[in-house]
Amino acid sequence: MSSPPRIAFLASPTPEAQQVLAVLQRDHGVHAPEDSDVLCALGGDGFMLQTLHRHGALGKPVFGMKLGTVGFLMNQYRAEDLLERIAAAEPAKLRPLEMHAITESGASVVSLAYNEVSLLRQTRQAAHLSIDLNGQTRLPELICDGVLIATPAGSTAYNFSAHGPILPLGSQTIALTPIAPFRPRRWRGAILKADTEVRFRVLDPYKRPVSATADSHEVRDVVEVTIGESRDRMVTLLFDPEHNLEERILSEQFMV
To answer: I need a surface site. Which of 44, 105, 160, 246 has the fewest CB within 10 A?
Structure first.
């Protein structure tokens, strides 16, 4: 009989998550992420994203349990049959976006995004942006509050709130969605192949400053942002078979 997996439990700082952390570590032991077979994230979607950013390079599968306000990327919390659930879980492989941002000062910042990269105006002035796809200008000027690129896993979050499309998991696509577009007024975005290189240029960065955010990592005063699918990073999330991530995304498209 094989030995049970070594589980590294990681919890958000909320009292409820910390209490559950203590119980699970008592029952299953304490293991560092780098020495574990599976990571178990206890919290909400925000904490799951933190876990992926901090430990995604380890290549360990992550089983999340909801102990927060939003849990689209999490399983329901239930402690008594955790080992059986992990053994039966279905994997969902996610490849993040990679953002390369250049600021007014000439600094270059690289960051990953598992949900979305968003560009937003920093002041009352609307942003003026141009959009290139694979080196070709597709939209010379977009006047808007902002614009974002979302992965399928992130398409039900900020992207959907901005009236962007919900993308099926495994569709090899990304969503390009404007936020409160003023001109062109009728442009509602696009669905692109996942390997498309998207480049935004800020047309008037001094009068109309823009920030770029990859998940929760914000870079202010950007002049150019290039986004593409990461080539060397992939993470695996584990889900209960009866409510896996693919089913959740599909169900979102039929909610009324």
So the answer is: 105
